[in-house]
């Protein structure tokens, strides 16, 4: 027997449909927990490592590589400029997630994406971070995401697919963050 | 005349105090805009590049390096597992930002941090992303940040310093994201 895999947009559509069926049959399989370890280097410079996660009803055993990522700050923000700032890293995660969500949901709907590239811009005002004005927020006052897509679908259809993005949800809606600090 | 630089936690405290004074003298210097370009590879795999930003009243000319970052998804989420997921990248940005904010504000307050390391956990339920249940959110239902710190300050003091984090604000409070899709 020959198995022909059915790919659209680089997504294995058969596997995607099986995943949906498995989750419908056993809702517990849908629970995921992602994790990161973070180590402070100095100033505004940190390094994270990412490997283990929980999903599909078990602790993952398939990921072989530990991914390491750094953050730093440019000289004008008192850093050594060894890596992108945390705010820029958020833009990377957001752009990747909106685009990936569009590609997955397009595949599930038989919509082909030929190419996609985007720019993201986030503005902020240091009065917030520096604690100089409690009325000014510390994070971005907003993010502009502009995506150029080559596809037969309409821009409205593509936007509706992109809006399934988990990181878009995390940024545009409040996500509770608990902070526990332990002295050692 | 000898200039002695005054560093605490790897932060140049004199430069930090000058930055605060400059912003107080000319509020327009506090406006920053960070940017990323994102290119879709296939499926849930993307690469971002980060270089230019606006801040301190001008387009930055000091950053020499373009930082590139990837996202992918593990096999169980139909990816090739070439890089961390966007959700994990958010944890990296959040942990780095909370820790960096603590280090900067501690320095400004004469509090020394000897070491800091943290773990971050974010849970989600695929019923949201897959569109199987509109009541289930697509992103994390919450993030747990646990930070071990070696410092003479109290845990409460340190938490109050970490809460200046811009990414903590972006995640825990709603940040408007505009989406513009252009067909090409």
Structure description:
2 copies of one chain form a homodimer. With 184 residues, chain A is of the alpha+beta class. The first copy, chain A, has a domain at 85-173: GMP Synthetase, Chain A, domain 3. Chain A has 5 helices and 10 strands, in the order ββαβββββαβαβααβ. The first copy, chain A, has helices spanning 13-25, 86-108, 126-129, 155-162, 166-172, and strands spanning 7-8, 11-12, 31-42, 45-50, 53-55, 58-59, 67-71, 113-125, 142-151, 177-183. In chain A, strands 6-5-3-4-7 form a 5-stranded antiparallel sheet, with no helix packed on it. A two-stranded antiparallel sheet of chain A has the order 1-2. In chain A, α2 packs across α4 (155-162) and α2 (86-108) packs across α5. The first copy, chain A, starts with 6 loop residues before the first strand and ends with a strand. In chain A, 48% of the residues are buried. The model of chain A has no long low-confidence stretch (mean pLDDT 96). Chains A and B meet through β2, α1, β3, β4 and β7 of A and β2, α1, β3, β4 and β7 of B. β3 of chain A pairs antiparallel with β8 of chain B.
């Amino acid at each position: 027997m020959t198995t022909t895999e059915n790919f659209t947009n680089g997504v294995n559509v058969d596997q995607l449909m099986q995943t949906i069926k498995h989750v419908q049959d056993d809702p517990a399989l849908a629970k995921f927990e992602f994790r990161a370890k973070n180590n402070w280097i100095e100033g505004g410079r940190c390094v994270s490592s990412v490997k283990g996660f929980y999903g599909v009803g078990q602790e993952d055993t398939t990921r072989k590589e530990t991914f390491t990522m750094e953050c730093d700050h440019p000289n004008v923000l008192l850093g050594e400029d060894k890596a992108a700032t945390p705010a820029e890293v958020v833009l990377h995660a957001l752009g990747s997630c909106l685009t990936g969500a569009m590609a997955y949901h397009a595949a599930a709907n038989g919509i082909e994406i030929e190419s996609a590239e985007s720019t993201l811009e986030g503005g902020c005002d240091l009065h917030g971070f520096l604690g100089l004005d409690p009325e000014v927020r510390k994070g971005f006052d907003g993010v502009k995401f502009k995506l150029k897509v080559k596809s037969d679908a309409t821009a409205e259809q593509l936007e509706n697919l992109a809006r399934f993005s988990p990181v878009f949800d995390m940024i545009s809606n409040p996500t509770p963050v608990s902070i526990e600090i332990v002295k050692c």
